[in-house]
Design goal:
This protein is mainly β. The protein has two helices and five strands. The protein has a five-stranded antiparallel sheet with strand order 4-3-2-1-5. It is globular, with a radius of gyration of 12 Å.
């Protein structure tokens, strides 16, 4: 894969988050009022938990982690697309 998240986002086909499966990529960043967005982070779906939330593997300032993306949390607010 290309190293930069914004370049990775140009590959593949966008799908609804509800259809995400193990191995899919989630892209995060900032959505502007103009409709444009800035992608600055990517995570790999590790699994979908019993609540239907994606659990992802990603690397942040704390290093590599496995984390549930819950509605309303920091990462869900930055989620742009899958």
């Amino acid at each position: 894969l290309i190293h930069l998240a914004k370049e990775q986002a140009k590959e593949g086909t966008e799908i609804p988050l509800k259809d995400a499966r193990t191995g899919d990529l989630l892209f995060f960043g900032k959505q502007y009022e103009s409709g444009k967005s800035k992608i600055d982070h990517v995570a790999i779906v590790y699994k979908i938990n019993a609540k239907g939330n994606p659990v992802v593997v990603h690397c942040s300032y704390r290093g590599v982690s496995i984390q549930e993306i819950k509605p309303g949390d920091y990462w869900s607010k930055k989620l742009l697309f899958c």
